[in-house]
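Hi, here's the filled form for the chain we discussed.

Project: internal
Contact: R.S.
Residues: 119
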Amino acid sequence: QVQLVESGGGLVQPGGSLRLSCVVSGSIFSIYTMDWYRQAPGKQRELVATITNGGSTNYADSVKGRFTISRDNAKNTVYLQMRSLKPEDTAVYYCKSRAMTDSSLRDYWGQGTQVTVSS
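And the returned structure, exactly as it came back:
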């Protein structure tokens, strides 16, 4: 069984910073792509940032230059450093991991962490 647990969300003022973490645990052989998504109230879930197991990254245009995704393969952890936060960044942030177990290769999701940007 694979579990993803996010942490680091909270309330922050516009212009502030937060760092999200997501730890992957369980019977994992390999972790491939790791992603951060977000979903604001009344909106569809959107991809925010992606990092491959080789360290290549990709970002949504709305967060380029403000957010940085990184990973620590030894700790099975992915991070999202968020700077210059705006009210429109308010959302529930989810991590997703593509992982190989002894039975399959599939995507796993975390439960989400709330980020609220407000003065």
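Let me know if anything looks off before we file it.
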